[in-house]
Amino acid sequence: MPEMWDIYDINKNKTGKQVQRNSYQFKKGEYHIVVTAIIINSKNEILISKRAAYKKFGLMWECNGGSILAGETSLEGVLREIKEELGIEFLKEEAIFLKEIRRDKIPPDFKDLWLFRKDININDITFPDGESIEAKWVSIDKFLKMFENREIVPTE
């Protein structure tokens, strides 16, 4: 079944239009929503995962996330993405909304950043959908160095 997205206006209000991913030409002032989960443990390390080779930016590291589906809220989307990509479940109450960024790129989107604090054993990560192939905890300094070295997926 094709992935469907809700279309939002510049004020992040649903327009009532739903479109199929990768088959719609966004008009000026139309957006969709993507989410990113920043998962931090009690040592203030960030959980990152390596993208599968077949994906855009394959074999690069990232914080997990993706596009929300039609009918989902940003929070529901980020919880689903974490479960699909890492096999880890969080409760809604564990999510902290950090920031929204409007990006006028192709396709244009609102990027919602969510924070989760949890100690997760790397061996408990299962990669159910195969989009990620490896995970590790890194310090914030290491993450920033990896970003500078272009090992982290660019935020565009």
Structural overview:
Helices cover 14% and strands 37% of the residues. By secondary structure, the protein is mostly beta strands. The strands form three sheets. A four-stranded mixed β-sheet has the order 6-3-8-7, with helices on one face. Strands 5-4-9 form a three-stranded antiparallel β-sheet. A two-stranded antiparallel ribbon has the order 1-2. The protein is globular, with a radius of gyration of 16 Å. The model has no long low-confidence stretch (mean pLDDT 96).
Write the layout of secondary structure elements.
Elements: E1 4-8, E2 14-20, E3 32-40, E4 45-51, E5 61-62, E6 65-67, H1 74-86, E7 96-103, E8 109-117, E9 132-139, H2 140-148
Parallel strand pairs: 3-8
Antiparallel strand pairs: 1-2, 3-6, 4-5, 4-9, 7-8
Summary tags:
single chain; four-stranded mixed beta sheet; 9 strands; 156 residues; mainly beta
How many strand elements? 9
- Number of distinct helices: 2
Helix content: 10-25%
Shape: globular
Order of helices and strands: EEEEEEHEEEH
Radius of gyration: 16 Å
Span from first to last CA? Answer: 28 Å
Uncertain spans, ≥5 residues at pLDDT below 50?
Answer: none
Tell me the structural class.
mainly beta
Record the strand order, biggest sheet: 6-3-8-7
**Biggest beta sheet attributes:** 4 strands, mixed
- As a percent range, the share of strand residues is 35-45%
Output mean pLDDT. 96
